[in-house]
Amino acid sequence: MCVGLAARVVRIREDGTALVDASGARREVSAALLEDLEPGEYVMVHAGAAIARITEDDEEESERLLQTEGL
Asked: Which residues of the chain have pLDDT under 70?
């Protein structure tokens, strides 16, 4: 099973990486798959890469589901 994490973009670096915040955990991920990514946007992160833009509502629902399921 593959699991992606919803995260908010904190900072974009010139080398094509992004600092993201996923429920308080910050990590560097590749932003190469998404053009014109901006701080404040929400993304789905899988295997160290931001793979899709998502809405804030999507992020909130993901967070709620993770808390409900105890993951």
From this structure: 1-2, 69-71
Residue 26 to residue 29: CA distance in whole angstroms: 10
What stretch of H or E contains 14?
Answer: none
Domain residues of the chain, as ranges?
Answer: 5-69
Query: What is the CATH T-level fold of the domain 5-69, as seen in this structure?
Result: SH3 type barrels. (2.30.30)
Supply the pLDDT for residue 34: 96
Question: Residue 20's closest CA among 53, 52, 45, 54?
Answer: 45
Number of CB atoms found within 10 A of residue 31's CB: 21
- Global confidence as pTM: 0.82
